Amino acid sequence: MPQTSRSLSLTVIGLGQMGGNMALTLKAAGFAVTGTDVFDAARTKLASLGLNVVTPDALPASDVYLLSLPTSAHVREVLETSPGLLARAPRGSVIVDTSTSDPAMSRELAEKVMAAGLHWLDAPVSGGPKGAASGKLGMLLGGDETTIERVRPMLEAMSAKCTHVGGPGSGHVVKLANNYLCAAHLITTAEAVAMAAQAGVDPAACLAGINSGSGRSAISEVNFPEWVLSERFDSGFTTGLMRKDLRLAREAAEQLGLPLPLLQMVVDAWHDNTEQPTDSDDFNHITTPILARASQAEGNQ
After folding, report:
1. pLDDT of 84-106, one tens digit each?
2. Per the residue annotation, which of 27, 136, 161, 175 is the catalytic one?
3. CATH topology match: 3-167 vs 173-299
4. CATH of span 3-167
């Protein structure tokens, strides 16, 4: 293990499925890692797995504070609520936000972070809990190159691929764009498979054909065989989180004065029936009612 990998001290704030697995991965890579969470159960679980855990009011001085939180509001709270990281973090330390956050708020918070003598990096992730546990996440980086280079050993331990897309907030912009496409592809792929099934083509055969052509996507290549056709629906990402991300994408477009009618249609499709799927359901369940309608139509023939 190179000495540079062990020289950064890290505090992970938010020990859910993503943050907890990231913390354990970084610990296994040789970093000095401390974790915290507002929920006792999360702290207890990670402590039982060997992570050094403290309560939120006992954060240690660290080189990097890695945030894995549900929303921008939670990020703001951690930074600003007295005593927040803006006041408590050692000058020169780095705040890394791996959440999927509101880009406008991220840029506002980044300015406050830098004004406080700290450094900022937005680094939203993809790959789910499995990617976090295996160190194979995808990361979109928004910040300056100097900050990225400083924490690169940590990023390399966490991810299979890091892509620097611009200054503060840019990572969150691109993450919202990515999740918009993911949400749209789930619906369009489900409709394509339903159409093929209604015409007598086996869904797996339909997907094999799509994946050999230009209509393929990560949804058709990964999500459908892994979670939809298998009916496992255990990706670790919920419908509620995807709905939140779609609303953020719509708000970002509105703030830019950019009319995106298809984005609005996708947002509407994900919100039309909040009971099927529910917010707590796996996000791949958005395909279930579409595929069920095809099955019903086939049975009525």
Report:
1. 999 999 999 999 999 999 999 99
2. 175
3. no
4. 3.40.50.720
